[in-house]
Amino acid sequence: MSIKVDFQLDAKGFSCPMPIVKTKKMMAELVDGQILEVLATDKGSKADLTAWAETVGHQYIGTVEEENVLKHYIRKCSNDMLDEKTFEHTIELEQVTKREGLILDAREEVEFAFGHIEGAKSIPMGELEARLSELDKEQEIYVICRTGKRSDLAAQRLSAHGFARVYNVLPGMTSWKGTLIKNI
Amino acid sequence: MSNKVAIIASNGGLFDAYKVFNIATAAAASEKEVAIFFTFEGLNLIHKQGMYALPMPAGAEHYAEGFAKANVPAISQLVEMAQELGVKFIACQMTMDVMGLTTEDFIDGIEVGGAVTFLEFAKDAAPSLTF
Questions:
Q1: B43-79 pLDDT, tens per residue?
Q2: 0.90 cut: is pTM over it?
Q3: CATH 3.30.110.40 location in chain A
Q4: What range does the domain containing B112 cover?
């Protein structure tokens, strides 16, 4: 699997606690919202990184194993991220699969790969402006992310570009109880 | 939730050193404030020469191969990393006096203190660990 990430850390061959220590150091290079891929051969690193991310407040996205190498994906978060949702048109999560419009997933590619709603289209927040031509202004668009924050911003941008039938989906994927489609 | 981890290192073998420094670096990497109180044989772990010659437990010498194979970092590397991550090292004054040691005998960047110095740090730490 080749997936777009912002940073990569090679911790192969290192035993505990090195993968964690190296990840912590590397994380300082990232800005909020960026994705780090950690390559490790330490079998304990999956449990450790999951717990570490939980402790320090980053988002552990998932792990894939390829040829005895574990690839962990973590998204940098900080506690002081403002949780403001201002886009006025919202739709409840349960409603989106009952309607005809497009579910637009604004999370990063790797988050999408580890689980999304069937039929959803992936355009990460940062690529939205460059990929507007892929969207139809006549169609209803339900923008979703993990918690409703990035999708709020994405919905505002779409609206500013003349998309009139845009809704922010609340809450986000963290509350999705249905089937998750994975591309990993 | 406490953001402090307090560790007492009172044994001077190689296994003891790994237990102490692995937990300490992992905790510091998880953004905990960490202090280690080195007392009695535990002082070996930060002794300038001693830390390079920490003994394996009797009968466990064959694990040396396992350490190499698992690519476990050397104690000196873990010590350096722990200090880089801000782990506080406190050497026990009383033990130093008994053993005739001075700060010159230890790696740089340590503090020297008594039991109360450690207790003051540890009073609101969770977990507190002894090795």
A1: 999 999 999 999 999 888 888 888 888 888 999 999 9
A2: no
A3: 7-75
A4: 4-130
ipTM: 0.83
- The catalytically annotated residue of A10, A13, A16, A21 is A16
Read off the CATH number of the domain in which B87 is found.
Answer: 3.40.1260.10
- For chain A, what's the residue count? 184
For the four alpha carbons of A28, A32, A37 and A38, in that order, the dihedral sign comes to: positive
pLDDT digits (tens, 9 = 90+) for A87-114: 999 999 999 999 999 999 999 999 999 9
Does A171 sit behind a cis peptide bond, omega within 30 degrees of 0 on the bond before it? Answer: yes
**What is the model's pLDDT at position A13?**
92
Measured CA to CA, the distance from residue A137 to residue A158 in angstroms comes to: 9
| C-alpha radius of gyration, chain A, whole number | 17
- Mark yes or no for CB contact A52/B30 under 8 Å: yes
The domain at A7-75 falls in which architecture?
A: 2-Layer Sandwich (3.30)
CATH class as words, domain A90-175: alpha beta
CB-nearest to A20 from B26, B70, B72 is: B26
How far from A109 is each of A34, A35, B25, B125, B131, CA to CA, in Å? 11, 10, 32, 40, 45
Chain B environment of A20 (Cβ under 8 Å): 25-26, 29-30
Instruction: Return the axis-axis angle of helices A18-27 and A45-56, rounded to nearest 10°.
Output: 40
Residues of chain B with Cβ-Cβ distance to A21 below 8 Å are: 25-26, 29, 81, 85
Cβ contact, residue pair A20, B70, below 8 Å: no
Structurally, how many domains does chain B consist of? Answer: 1
Q: Where are the alpha helices (DSSP H) in chain A?
A: 18-27, 45-56, 93-96, 109-113, 149-160
